[in-house]
Design a protein that fits this description.
Blueprint: H1 10-16, E1 17-19, E2 26-28, E3 44-47, E4 53-59, E5 67-70, H2 71-80, E6 88-90, E7 103-105, H3 108-112, E8 128-131, E9 135-142, E10 145-152, H4 155-168, H5 182-189
Antiparallel strand pairs: 1-2, 3-4, 4-5, 6-7, 8-9, 9-10
Protein name: HNH nuclease domain-containing protein
Length: about 190
């Protein structure tokens, strides 16, 4: 996938796609002599190594072969008229929600601060690991530095301390939440 290569011009993209910035719907425009339906959502869904699903679309170049891009990159250019940033973050973590209000310029740091819990997590809290004596160590990385929060005897208190420390440093409320409990827990934190 040529994710970070330059997209065709705004005019060429506009000739191929219809984008609804409010809903995030990206549809192929019907071509002459084509059986492709206009109402069909463009592209197909792929899953990243981290388990997040994204939509990819085939983009045709005026001179040359067609290439595959993430739909959120095409949506960005259709909405702004500018080449998309190197990384785009989905604010709600749903890689299929391409509403423009859900997309933001996402540096690697911003994306990392908006990630849900790794499937390899054993404590149930990001940044909380067991240590000798039945205690819990709270430590995480932020801006290339290791942040030590403390040691706790109670797992839930350790998890709450980790969450508060991350939010103070600009992490989102959804950072570190398990995928299966994500919406319920985000709602309870607000």
């Amino acid at each position: 996938m040529n994710d970070r290569k330059s997209l065709p011009s705004f005019v060429d993209l506009r000739a191929q796609f219809i984008y609804d910035a409010e809903t995030g719907s990206l549809q192929y425009r019907k071509k002459k002599n084509s059986k492709r339906l206009l109402s069909k959502e463009a592209g197909r869904i792929v899953e990243s190594t981290s388990g997040i699903k994204y939509r990819v679309v085939t983009v045709e170049y005026p001179s040359g072969p067609s290439k595959t891009f993430f739909a959120h990159r095409v949506a960005w250019k259709l909405e702004t008229g500018e080449e998309p940033p190197e990384q785009i973050d989905h604010r709600d973590g749903d890689g299929l929600n391409n509403a423009f209000s859900n997309l933001r310029d996402g540096t690697g740091c911003k994306n990392a601060r908006n990630r849900v819990m790794s499937k390899n997590n054993t404590s149930g809290y990001n940044g909380v690991t067991p240590v000798k004596g039945g205690r819990w160590l709270v430590r995480f990385n932020c801006d290339g530095q290791s942040v030590y929060v403390g040691r706790f005897t109670d797992l839930d208190k350790a998890g709450e301390a980790a969450r508060k420390a991350r939010i103070q440093r600009g992490f989102t409320k959804r950072h570190g939440l398990p995928k299966n409990k994500l919406q319920k827990r985000v709602d309870s934190l607000e």
